[in-house]
Specification:
alpha/beta, 13 helices, NADP-dependent oxidoreductase domain-containing protein, NADP_OxRdtase_dom, oxidoreductase, NAD(P)_OxRdtase_dom_sf, AKR_Detox_Biosynth
Length: 365
């Protein structure tokens, strides 16, 4: 493999308002290990370890997994790699909420019992004494929020978890978490892991405003929308390969690999054309331009990339450092991908456009 110039390696950024520094590109481990009924092209242990090693060569120190990925398989693969490393050089994030045993009614959700059981099992699979970042994987309507947050706080106090965050939430849920933690004197969440890309910008309406006001760093998942933002897919040609091809064939509607009709929109093709023009002018790939746009968004701490092939990883990591999109290029991508803004957001933002006060910062991103 070619050597990586120092100027191209990852930058290290603070994760939200915390003192924790992570590489600006995070390696997502959802592709590690086979998962029954899951998407094709999953990696075995040896291939996964080779991918992590290459990621580390790029300066990466941040690995994101979840207990639900392969129902523990991904964590096990990360753990067998982590056991051979200097543990304190890496930041490992995992998640809790999903159904780990369909036959056990208590093996799901964000109850005290399930969170504690899940963390103990995650620590065993990851072969470590602590998780750097534990994220609630979604909301749980069945469990009082206070029960969840007290449990997360207890895990931090015990030393088994260092920081806490969330994933896949709407704005009021994030603000509720912030308010309850603050009122109870608990450890604050430092991050929100959310789907975000040039073709998925809905979270700008509420969740990212809340993050911006309260100092939560955004970790973006599916930044290339299942491969759509790589240029492999063309208008009027349904994909037949990769995650998008699988989703189209199986007629599933996963957020990371949506049905073709959900992507085959004129705005998305305009966005892809704009990214391609910039990529050709800059000598970069469409994927690198798409990732770079995310990295330069003020609310984003790190972008999570997943790969099944080494050349995919290398291409994605090429967005990490050493170059930037110009203000004009950022504007072009912003305008091409801008979604329709519904009421009352459009009205509120338009009326307040001339009312910016630097001494009264808002959440606008």
């Amino acid at each position: 493999m070619p050597a990586i110039p120092d100027e191209s390696k990852c930058q290290y950024v603070f994760l939200g308002k915390s003192g924790l520094r992570v590489s600006n590109i995070c390696l997502g481990a959802m592709t590690f290990g086979e998962s029954p009924g899951g998407s094709p092209g999953q990696l075995g242990e040896a291939s996964s370890h080779a991918l992590i090693n290459r990621y580390v060569e790029w300066g990466g120190n941040f690995i994101d997994t979840a207990n639900i990925y392969g129902r523990g398989t991904s964590e096990t693969i990360v753990g067998s790699w982590l056991a051979k490393q200097e543990r304190d050089r890496f930041v490992v994030a995992t998640k809790v909420r999903g159904t780990m045993d369909p036959t056990n009614p208590n093996a799901v959700g964000l109850s005290r019992r399930h969170i504690i059981d899940s963390v103990e099992q995650s620590l065993q699979r990851l072969k470590t004494d602590y998780v750097d970042l534990l994220q609630t994987h979604n909301w749980d309507d069945a469990t009082p929020l206070e029960e969840t947050l007290l449990t997360m706080n207890d895990l931090v106090r015990s030393g088994k978890v260092r920081y806490v965050g969330a994933s896949n939430l709407v704005g009021w849920q994030i603000q509720r978490i912030v308010d309850v933690n603050r009122h109870m004197g608990f450890n604050q969440y430092i991050s929100l892991q959310q789907q975000y890309s040039l073709v998925c910008r809905e979270s700008e309406l509420e969740p990212f405003q809340v993050c911006n006001i309260n100092g939560l760093g955004v970790l973006t998942w599916s930044p290339l929308k299942g491969g759509f933002l790589t240029g492999k897919v063309r208008k009027d040609q349904k994909p037949t390969e990769g995650r998008l091809g699988w989703a189209t064939k199986e007629k599933v509607n996963m957020q990371s690999a949506p049905t073709w009709s959900a992507l085959d929109l004129e705005r998305n093709w305009t966005t892809l054309d704009t990214a391609e023009k910039i990529a050709k002018a800059r000598g970069k790939s469409i994927a690198q331009v798409s990732l770079r746009w995310l990295l330069q968004r003020s609310v984003v701490s790190a972008v999570i990339v997943g790969a099944t092939k080494m050349h995919q990883l290398d291409d994605n990591m090429g967005a990490a450092n050493g170059w930037s999109l110009t203000a004009e290029e950022m504007k072009q991508l912003e305008e091409a991908s801008k979604p329709d803004i519904p009421y009352p957001y459009e009205m509120m933002w338009r009326i307040n456009a001339a009312r910016k006060n630097p001494w009264n910062p808002t959440g606008y991103v």
